[in-house]
Design brief:
Low-confidence stretches: 1-8
Order of helices and strands: HEHHEHHEHEEHEEHHEHHHHEHEEEHE
Strand content: 15-25%
């Protein structure tokens, strides 16, 4: 039974500590839309999405108003479009027509993003998957709300280095195609290893082929709540610290479970998962970096940062998993630079480098996220970074991702402003030594020995 103390405590989290439900994401299968006729395919996609999601935004707003819980974003994820469009799309422009249809759907139903302009190529690429990947720069430039992702590796299959090389080129081409918006297209493009099928967060969300026809996934967020709670145990030992994180994560996740259950019931769509991720925003006091500093670091990036992040990630999962009927997605701590004021401050003060961020991704749930780099960074260098991050995910049997933004026309020492939840970021330096010969080898890095579990 919920008592008045718990009600007041939750209200305080919402009003003073930036607790919110970051997103309700409706996953929609488009497998039944497949058609060899491109016009028919686009029409089927439009009709299914606008029918299934017609009440999504209104329902999220109703729940937020009724329960007093901010539901910041309402989003849609769809079956990877490389699978859906394979029969109809014979050139890159054909896939771009689907991107435009998705964008039209997103605007009509009122969601802020739609994810699933995606390809899963961890072991190899079909002609359709390669066409979709090559269409990404144009698709990101010509749409506003469409997000794209490409899975280039997994623990089971290894890393497709041909795809990694291509994605280095595509990231740079996307930056160039959207240079008038400070290369904003790259903020809507994620390269994954071990991509999850049920992630509600953008830009990496897509609706996995093993999922039901339609599903509701919810992502919660409460870095400010965790930071405030840890202030109560300042100076205490790690056991006490861990207990506080677990208890707080439980409370935050219960809010997400409530919203997920209500959205599922009102939309008559099955509940999928709650994603336990601590997702920061540019708002003051809503920072994962500030949690790490509350644990005892002068600045994020100082010695001890990776250990502190590992502790935080593990305790959030342990506390959250008990509060939800099912958890999934990424579930842990996001460490995006542009979306976290504490991370931005750490970069500006020289405490946090790209290499330290890479080390942190070994123990967090995501990867190198929303990092602005010089616009003259070579495609092979971007591919090398993607390969490094994929290797971390592959060997550690976890999801890792790369969302790098080479800002055309800008260099180290400058800042790029994206606005809204995407925030702003300092341009970070990248190692200038070449990995050209490594990337040019091609082929596939084999799966690690511990992947053979049959």
């Amino acid at each position: 039974m919920i008592n008045i103390f718990e009600v007041n405590e939750t209200n305080k989290m919402i009003e003073q500590e930036n607790l919110d439900v970051r997103t309700i994401t409706m996953g929609i299968s488009l497998l039944d839309c497949i058609d060899p006729d491109l016009d028919a395919l686009n029409q089927k996609i439009y009709e299914k999405i606008t029918t299934k999601a017609r009440n999504l935004v209104a329902t999220g707003d109703e729940i937020a108003k009724e329960y007093g819980i901010p539901v910041v974003n309402k989003r849609i994820s769809v079956t990877p479009i490389a699978l859906v469009g394979g029969a109809a799309c014979k050139k890159t422009e054909d896939f771009v027509t689907i991107a435009r249809t998705l964008d039209k759907c997103a605007k009509e139903v009122g969601v802020n993003f739609i994810g699933g302009y995606s390809a899963l190529v961890s072991k190899g690429m079909t002609p359709a998957e390669e066409l979709l990947i090559r269409s990404i720069p144009q698709a990101m430039a010509e749409t506003e709300r469409v997000c794209s992702s490409v899975n280039v590796g997994s623990t089971k299959t290894g890393i497709n280095m041909d795809a990694v090389k291509l994605m280095g080129e595509i990231v740079l081409a996307t930056a160039e195609a959207t240079r008038e918006q400070d290369s904003l297209g790259c903020a809507k493009l994620v390269v994954f290893c071990n991509a999850p099928d049920d992630n509600p967060f953008m830009a990496g969300a897509f609706h996995g082929v093993t999922e039901a026809d339609c599903i509701i996934n919810v992502g919660v967020s409460g870095p400010g709540v965790v930071k405030k709670a840890l202030e109560q145990v300042r100076g205490e030992d790690f056991g006490t610290l861990c207990e506080m994180i677990k208890r707080t994560a439980f409370k935050v996740t219960r809010v997400g479970q409530l919203v997920a259950r209500e959205a599922s019931r009102r939309l008559d769509v099955p509940f999928g998962i709650v994603d336990l991720s601590l997702a920061p925003t540019p708002a003051i006091g809503d920072s994962v970096a500030e949690i790490l500093e509350e644990i005892g670091l002068e600045r994020a990036g100082a010695p001890g940062t990776t250990a502190a992040l590992a502790l935080l990630n593990d305790q959030v999962k342990k506390g959250g998993v008990m509060a939800a009927a099912a958890v999934g997605g990424l579930s842990g701590a996001f460490i995006p630079v542009s979306e976290d004021q504490g991370m931005i401050d750490a970069v500006n003060e020289g405490a946090l480098t790209l290499e330290k961020l890479e080390a942190m991704t070994c123990v967090c749930s995501v990867g190198l996220d929303m990092i602005a780099v010089p616009g003259d960074t070579k495609a092979t260098t971007l591919a090398g970074i993607i390969a490094d991050e994929s290797a971390i995910g592959m060997v550690n049997q976890k999801t890792t991702a790369v969302r790098l933004i080479p800002v055309i026309g800008k260099g180290v020492g400058e800042t790029v402003e994206f606005g809204g939840l995407l925030g702003y970021a300092p341009i970070m330096p990248v190692n200038s030594f070449s990995c050209d010969a490594f990337v040019q080898r091609g082929g596939r890095i084999p799966a690690p020995i511990h992947s053979f579990k049959n």
